[in-house]
Amino acid sequence: MENLYKYSSWIIRIGVSLLFLISAIAKIYPDPSAYFSITTFEAKQIVPLGIDPFLAAILSRLLIGLEFALGVLILLPFYLKKIIIPVTLGLLIFFCIQLGIDILLVGNSGNCGCFGALLPMTPLEAIVKNIILIGFLLIFLKISPKGVSKSTNFKLLYIIYIIICLVLFVFIPVKSIDNPGALIENTCIGELDPYGPEPVSSKFSKELPFVDNGKVILCFFAPGCDHCMKSAKELAVLKSELQNEFPCVHIVFMDEEADRIPEFFDFAGFEFNFQIMDLALFWEVLGFENDTPGVYYFWNGNLLGDFQGINEDEFDVDKLKKLIQSK
């Protein structure tokens, strides 16, 4: 029986370690860049809690560093029962509470960012995952054999954590927000369509009022995102097909990798109207529950088409074409 407990406790430790390491790596997974991934985690999970974007950037790196450290330390025998397991349980409980707040604020939709772009999860799915991990850790505390937890120099624990955090801050530095607003390069200037539906104010009317005038396709893209580039290329092809029947397209780019915008339009084959928006404001305007690429079709402010992300609601150019041609 003692051997069974020993092997079971090791299975739990290795499983929890792998999940923590994968979770930490996924939050900086380069899709399209590590900075994009970590700032998406901030915008999706930390900023909605009312935390300042600059402080959220610092907190995100400290949390990811803690995930890395716990993933390593849980495999070592030092202070397992006194420090490492309790801290791991505390972090999981914290994430459960934070995800629960997210569900209350924006609903159980979109990718919570727990595993970044590697494994999209809704907030509720992530809570269930965390509760299962909490259960396994409690079982570990119950069955772990004597001698599994040893004492050593306490400095070893926080030295490992500090080194991991320093690496994150060096390779993914916190960027200062010099311009929190939007930089308008060009925009759609239209008028209400008297033959269209009754005019209404869209959810973007405050920051992007032009979307309420006539027919407008509004896109939220990341300049280095392959899926966003593909959507832009499909829009360019549709524009050449429909010509004058095609609505005005306006792209809101996040300022992550803004230097790649020329490359973005080279790939698309057409340069649409666009603006660059600070990342924190970008997610605030798009909505924390939504994903990129985001493509919206408006007629006099009425939302007729809503495409987002890369799953079941992803952009479908054929559906958009039918919406444009319908009267």
What's this entry about, in short?
A hairpin with a 2-residue loop joins strand 5 and strand 6 (302-308). Helix content is 51%, strand content 11%. The chain has helices spanning 2-26, 34-46, 53-73, 80-106, 123-143, 155-171, 226-242, 261-268, 279-286, 317-325, and strands spanning 182-184, 215-221, 248-254, 273-277, 294-299, 302-308.
The side-by-side strand order for the widest beta sheet comes to 1-4-3-2-5-6
Shape call = elongated
Count of the separate structural domains: 2
Report Rg: 23 Å
How is the biggest beta sheet arranged?
Answer: 6 strands, mixed
- Low-confidence parts, pLDDT < 50 over ≥5 residues? none
Strand fraction? 5-15%
Number of helices: 10
What's the end-to-end separation, in Å?
A: 73 Å
Overall mean confidence score, pLDDT? 86
* Strands, total number: 6
The helix-strand sequence is HHHHHHEEHEHEHEEH
* Derived structural class: alpha/beta
Fraction in helix: 40-55%
Provide keyphrases for this structure.
elongated, alpha/beta, Glutaredoxin, 6-stranded mixed β-sheet, 51% helix, 327 residues
What does this molecule look like?
This protein is of the alpha/beta class. The protein folds into two domains: 2-171; 182-325, 3-Layer(aba) Sandwich (Glutaredoxin), CATH 3.40.30. Helix content is 51%, strand content 11%. The protein is built from ten helices and six strands. The chain has helices at residues 2-26, 34-46, 53-73, 80-106, 123-143, 155-171, 226-242, 261-268, 279-286, 317-325, and strands at residues 182-184, 215-221, 248-254, 273-277, 294-299, 302-308. Helix 1 runs antiparallel to helix 3, helix 1 (2-26) packs antiparallel against helix 5 (123-143) and helix 3 (53-73) packs across helix 6. The chain is elongated, with a radius of gyration of 23 Å.
